[in-house]
Amino acid sequence: MNNLFRLSVGLFRSGTGVYRLGPVSEGHASLVVARLFSSAPENNELGQLIKKDKVVVFIKGTPAQPMCGFSNAVVQILRMHGVDDYASYNVLEDQDLRQGVKDFSNWPTIPQVYFNGEFVGGCDILLQMHQNGDLVEELKKLGIHSALLDANKDEQKK
């Protein structure tokens, strides 16, 4: 990944919930809410959190109900690629999380996307990766097969 978008160290203050989007069954996403952060910022919970899952997103709202167009775009791009097992954190629930993730990544906006603990970027970067095909390759590195590859094969057969 581009070094420009690598993680930079920052501080994080405690206290929010996490939404874990699991496999979609019968068109409904299953959300599980968990309390993850303690009150000690030096524990670097955010750094550990982004490494727990292959794909982690910080958005406004939830994958089932994004609360801004950019967050919705990230959710839709991931959905197009068949990425339905990722951790999602709603920054609207806690201002400390909202500012903490911005400080952590040194990136001023939400949404933010992480692959294998590495900061990828925001909506604009993910959209660009989707458009130029880099997202398929990055997902492959994560062991995730993009659903768009299957869709392209089906189109070529017609």
Automatic annotation (TrEMBL):
The keyword Cell membrane does not apply. Residues 55-120 form the Glutaredoxin domain. Gene3D superfamilies: Glutaredoxin. SUPFAM superfamilies: Thioredoxin-like (SSF52833). Keywords: 2Fe-2S, Iron, Iron-sulfur, Metal-binding, Redox-active center. PANTHER family: GLUTAREDOXIN FAMILY MEMBER, GLUTAREDOXIN-RELATED PROTEIN 5, MITOCHONDRIAL. NCBIfam families: Grx4 family monothiol glutaredoxin. This is GLRX5 protein.
